[in-house]
Amino acid sequence: MNIVILIQLLLAHILNDFVIQSNKWVNGKKTKGINSRYFWIHIFLSGLLTYIFLMQWTAWLVPVFIIVTHGFIDFWKINQEKKIEIFNATQENDAKKKTGKRQFFFDQLFHIIMILIAWLYLTKGFKEVLPFLESMLSEKNFITIITATIFIIWPVGVAIGKITEPFKNELSSDEENDSLTKAGKYIGIFERLMVMIFIFTGQYEAIGFLIAAKSVLRIGKDDDKLARKKTEYVLIGTLISFTTAIVVGLLVKSIISN
After folding, report:
1. Helix, coil or strand: residue 177
2. C-alpha pair distances (Å), 102 with each of 83, 84, 189, 201, 205
3. Bigger pLDDT: 93 or 251?
4. Comparing C-alpha atoms, which of 1, 9, 4 is closest to residue 113?
5. pLDDT tier at 180 (50, 70, 90 boundaries)?
């Protein structure tokens, strides 16, 4: 299958959704929905840019397909955002208010799925999808890396939370609230992924640099017991996270190399 066509389709989408579309357009769509002229300009551009970048002047069905699906997906997102605004208006606690990030990621996921369908149509690659998936799932390197990645993101994250829970309970609720919600969870996920990538690429020095950077934490004064406890709590989680990622990364590298 021609990967260039897929890149052309993705480029058209990226330009339309992230480069050309301004905040004025986004706010206009939020305010007036499908009655906004920016909604229709944006939808039309999704097809026009696709048509221009593909340079397959007889394949007009693909730009039309992109226009129609892009319109339905954006219409769905606008309605979801309106529901979020109504929900947030009823919430006095800012922590309970929704940000709409889930709708954003689903919106982009749906667009990418439509782009993949268009790509498979243009390359006549529908019949190759199942054989490709079967070959990938039976390929040792791929299935090993996927399994390891899922393992260090979810099971390891849960395990670290359980291990450090007694230490977390020693911190006062006021001290805990000084941190961003779920910030530690996402930091841990990305640091473990980075460690695995460094191991796969043989960049062991980068792991040391990452550990050093993560270890630059504020140490409280001698009489600031809560600050010291919080620092020790973070360091314990960090060391468990790094150790697990290093062990898993080395194990995966050993499996792949054999």
Report:
1. coil
2. 13, 11, 18, 32, 36
3. 251
4. 9
5. low
Tokens describing residue 32: 């007036």
- CA 251, 256, 257, 258 torsion-angle sign: positive
Query: Does residue 173 surpass a pLDDT of 80?
Result: no
What backbone torsions phi and psi does residue 158 show, to the nearest 5 degrees? -65, -45
The predicted-structure confidence for 116-162, as pLDDT tens digits, reads as follows: 999 999 999 999 999 989 999 999 999 999 999 999 999 999 999 99
In this prediction, residues 71-78 reach a mean pLDDT of 97
How deeply is 109 buried, as exposed, middle or buried, from its count of CB atoms within 10 A (0-12, 13-18, 19+)? exposed
Determine contact, residues 197/253, Cβ cutoff 8 Å.
no
CA distance 141 to 210: 26
- Residue 163 corresponds to which amino acid? I
Whose tokens are 């800012």? That residue is 94
Q: What is the mean pLDDT of residues 92-120?
A: 92
Whose tokens are 């480029």? That residue is 11
- Report the alpha-carbon distance of residue 80 to residue 208 in Å, rounded: 44
| Cα–Cα distance measured from residue 169 to residue 164, given in angstroms and rounded to the nearest whole number | 9
Q: What are phi and psi of 150, to 5 degrees?
A: -65, -40
d(CA 74, CA 69): 9
CA dihedral 55, 46, 110, 72 (to 10 degrees): -130
Q: Among candidates 20, 1, 21, which has minimal Cα distance to 116? A: 1
pTM above 0.90, yes or no: no
Structure confidence at residue 166 (pLDDT): 84
